[in-house]
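Milestone 3.1: sequence recovery, worked example.
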């Protein structure tokens, strides 16, 4: 597995804005979608292409299109929904496989409460989206579910990742690549990423 920290200036600028404690709900939501969009661009840059012929304005023209597996986007509820629009802007015909997981505040263990996966998920590449990779529990539980349903090509897009969570995901699922805007310093005693973004779900939904 490899971890890709996207150091592109637009990504770094936007993630910096998201860290401002005074950022509005509207602004945070917009930025989560925009960084999701830029991470999608990076995470799809090695997709295979094939040549095909079509009639262009001056006659037959050789063009290229994406070949191979189609994509399903997998937002982890709730906060993953904040990245979804940005991802779909680039992959508008992707199917969406929704996974509902929250992290128990005391134990930090993932609690699953919903899932509705694309029926042909075993034929697709999954792009899992969630702003935060903290202990890694939620992402590991999601990947476990996807693999149980036959999906064998999985990439994860997270806005911010903690080194502790990356290590756990790497150990559990060495075949899964992670794309992130920032590998942050560490987790605090409550399992929050430092410096992080705070509670991404609450910021996106305006619930605090
Ligand atoms: O890596 P972990 O330690 O599992 O933590 C990360 C998870 O925590 C947050 O979700 P949360 O439980 O706050 O749910 P929400 O999106 O509904 O707010 C976040 O969006 C991740 O899903
Ligand atoms: O820092 C963190 C960790 C888990 N969930 C969040 O929303 N933020
Ligand atoms: Mg939350």
């Amino acid at each position: 597995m490899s971890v890709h920290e996207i150091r592109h200036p637009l990504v770094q600028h936007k993630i910096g804005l998201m860290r401002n404690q005074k950022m509005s709900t509207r602004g945070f939501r917009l930025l989560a979608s925009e960084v999701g969009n830029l991470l999608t661009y990076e995470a799809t840059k090695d997709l295979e292409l094939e040549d095909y012929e079509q009639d262009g304005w001056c006659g037959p023209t050789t063009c290229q299109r994406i070949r191979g597996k189609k994509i399903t986007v997998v937002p982890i509820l709730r906060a993953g929904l904040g990245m979804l629009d940005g991802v779909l802007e680039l992959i508008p015909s992707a199917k969406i496989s929704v996974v509902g997981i929250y992290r128990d505040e005391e134990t930090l263990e993932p609690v699953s409460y919903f899932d509705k996966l694309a029926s042909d998920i075993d034929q697709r590449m999954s792009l899992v989206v969630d702003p935060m990779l903290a202990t890694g529990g939620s992402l590991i539980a999601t990947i476990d579910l996807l693999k149980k349903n036959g999906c064998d090509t999985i990439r994860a897009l997270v806005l911010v990742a903690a080194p502790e969570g990356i290590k756990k995901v790497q150990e559990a699922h060495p075949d899964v690549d992670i794309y992130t805007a920032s590998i942050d310093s560490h987790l605090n005693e409550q399992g929050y990423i430092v410096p992080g973004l705070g509670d991404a779900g609450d910021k996106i939904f305006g619930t605090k």
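The mean pLDDT is 97. The first strand starts at residue 3 and ends at 5.
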